[in-house]
Write a structure and sequence with these properties.
Blueprint: H1 6-29, H2 36-39, H3 58-75, H4 77-82, H5 84-112
Length: about 120
Amino acid sequence: MLQPYIPILIQFVIVAALGGIIIGASAFVGRKPRTREKLSPYECGSLPVGDSRGRFSISFYLVGMLFILFDVEAVFLYPWAVVYKELKWLGFIEMFVYILILLAGFLYVWKKGALDWTR
């Protein structure tokens, strides 16, 4: 009964072993001495000015999360486009409603000023 799952188990074992080997090899090969230059925040040659742990505006994180949200929702359009002809009008209406909901969310975010960088 469990025989169809044996290839999946073998793949998990191989992936775990390969991951362990790669992490072990990078720890072994990648050991470098900790120098003052290596511990500095920037290795571009210019001296760092100020604190490297400065605060970012919350708008930075908000715009990033909104980008990910709308980007992931846009990815759902690709499978729909592949099977568009098979879905006929019902698929078109469902995707139209989906896009309207997505547009309503985008307009709400825009109206609230979450995409405004100058605030």
